[in-house]
Amino acid sequence: MEVFQVGGSVRDELLGFESQDRDWVVVNSSPEEMEKKGFKPIGKDFPVFLHPKTNEEYALARTERKSGVGYKGFEFYFDSDVTLEEDLKRRDFTINSIAKDQNGRLIDPYNGIEDLEKKIFRHTSPAFAEDPLRVLRFARFKSYEQLHEFKLDKETAVFFKKIINANELQNLSPERVWMETKKALQNKYSDEFFKSVIEYQIINPWFKNLKRVSCDGELPELKWCDLQRVNDFKLFELMPIPNSFMATQKIFKQILDLVESKNIKYKLRLIEKINVHRNYEILLGIKRYKCLQEHKYYLEQILESVMAINFSSLKKFHASEVSDKKQLLYHEALNGIL
């Protein structure tokens, strides 16, 4: 039984970045031996185990063969005779096909270290074209601080076209596409993900209507809203968008209406709907948008004035009267600002 650290964690260490997660491959072992040593099995399609102490994932070395459509259409072969080099060969890019043994020795059969130095995404083998998820993973890798300057190898770009022309992207699940998108939104260079989607035509069907890129904001929800804004709020219709993203978008659109409207009564109704006290932190992020800088002082005045309102007097009124009484409080607090 031999254990090797593999994948992104090895890549990131070589680039001088600390990796959040480490993956391990076990060679010359079996599911029975892994369980005997205390590893907990979690894999459904192939043997993956959790380390009894660190809880990190350990997978038996395996090979794979395309047997269907999409990124799940594979048959896996795992046995004690599968070598480390065979396991590394099935991985997407050479820079992710580097391993390190328990003595710190690097195993690099596909010249991934050289590609790291050249800042190149190059496919490990022609099997790259069998998995449509890999083009989306490439776009997500571009959002990483340590990888955003890397370029796509010309030969690998040919495989991209093959996947796209075969309409393989439509076989991805909405949940998985959103997972990759959300991860990109959590990274420093989120805009590079969407620029790559446009540049390499990773559009249909998931990113239909994506024409422009702007990912202003620190939180993923804020970046998502800004991207929606520059694309007329017509993106991601096929994806399972979480409630927090939808709620932030709703507030953002209300803020846009607030600064554009000239009707004071409508503005007061909007402010009530926005619920400044409950959504104050989100609103602080929204008012920092570059697209709202000309309205920043105006919004700050509104937020400060509303936060200073004492709503305790509303307790004595019947529920049917509360909204109108709130409007009076808003009007008094915002008189001269709106």
From TrEMBL:
Q: Which cofactors?
A: Mg(2+)
Could you list this entry's UniProt keywords, alphabetically sorted.
Answer: ATP-binding, Magnesium, Metal-binding, Nucleotide-binding, Nucleotidyltransferase, RNA repair, RNA-binding, Transferase, tRNA processing
Q: Which GO terms describe its biological process?
A: RNA repair; tRNA processing
Record keywords: Cell cycle included? no
Q: Which Gene3D superfamilies match?
A: Beta Polymerase, domain 2 (3.30.460.10), cca-adding enzyme, domain 2 (1.10.3090.10)
Instruction: State if Glycosyltransferase is listed as a keyword.
Output: no
> Could you tell me which InterPro entries the record lists for this protein?
NT_sf, PolA_pol_head_dom, PolyA_RNA-bd, tRNA_CCA-adding_enzyme
Looking at the record's lineage, which domain of life comes first?
Bacteria
Residue ranges of every copy of the Poly A polymerase head domain listed in the record: 4-121
Family matches, as SUPFAM superfamilies: Nucleotidyltransferase, Poly A polymerase C-terminal region-like
Which GO terms label this protein's molecular function in UniProt? ATP binding; metal ion binding; nucleotidyltransferase activity; RNA binding
Query: What are the TM regions of this chain, as residue ranges?
Result: none
Q: Where is the signal peptide?
A: none
- Segments forming domain tRNA nucleotidyltransferase/poly(A) polymerase RNA and SrmB- binding: 150-211
Q: Report the sequence similarity comment from the record.
A: Belongs to the tRNA nucleotidyltransferase/poly(A) polymerase family.
Please give the name of this protein: tRNA nucleotidyl transferase
**Species lineage:** Bacteria, Pseudomonadati, Pseudomonadota, Gammaproteobacteria, SAR86 cluster
